[in-house]
Amino acid sequence: MLDLTFGEQVKIVLSRKNMTIKDLAEEIEKRTGKKMSRQNLTQRLGRDNFQEQDMRMIAGILGCPFRLDILEEETESEAVWRSEHVETPVVTKSVRKREDEEEGFSFERDITIGELVDINQGLDEMIREEQERQGEQGPPVEELLEEMEEIEREAKERNQERISREERMEQERQARSWKAYLQRKKHKGAEYAAVEMEAAEESAAEVGPEEAFAAEEEPPAEETEEALVMEEEEDLERGDVNPYTGREYKSNSVRMHPKRIGYVQVYDRGEHKWTDMTEWAFLGYQERKKALLGKDYEPPIYLD
Prior knowledge:
The chain is mainly alpha-helical. The protein is built from eleven helices and four strands, in the order H-H-H-H-H-H-H-H-H-H-E-E-E-H-E. The protein has helices at residues 6-16, 21-32, 38-47, 52-62, 76-85, 93-104, 113-137, 141-206, 209-217, 221-233, 279-293; strands at 253-256, 263-268, 273-278, 301-302.
């Protein structure tokens, strides 16, 4: 078929032999020993860009004689045209020998399939070298990730230190405020005691000497009972003794914690020991106790 290109004829023969372009590419690899992909061979067949030795090789793979067309069938008109216009050349031994030599080497300037494969391999090698060079210039991704994690970890540590510092400052501020509050309570208690003492002295001056002496000799019944209970509960050996009075601290005595900021110590004569509490917990406990007892509520004894 004179109107068909070599590539089109190859495709027709492949379909008749139930072969694919990939099968033909694999056969070319076996013959030449060079890599040939299906995509490259498809492009070559589409452009019909083959040298004579490549066409001879493909015709040999397909089992077809190499001539202007490789189709075994031809129409009657083509046979007539061939008989009228094509003269059968006389092939001598020298000409056949020269053709056989040309099959092994081509002097034409067109690019062969093997050379095209070499060019593609060279391009792949250049791309791979370029990628390796770029990888050497820039740090690996793993190092960048580790550096980012280190930066995030340092930021978290700085944030945690800042939060801890703010919490510590807040605790110190609260400690100072509660210490001032306890001192004010103590000062008010002292003023209240002084007022009561002055009132007692004024009442004693108004009452006669004998009545005042009798009042001093007979303490109230509540004080007598409290003194008895105190004497029963007091234990100078097991308990903590107040250096100013020489007696054991009374229950519900409160003092600032000597070592822990924001804490107070509450004494329990029944247990004969101090109990550590936060100022917030102690004040909350006193508020609840005051709400429950009402008039019977007794305020704590502030020592500081």
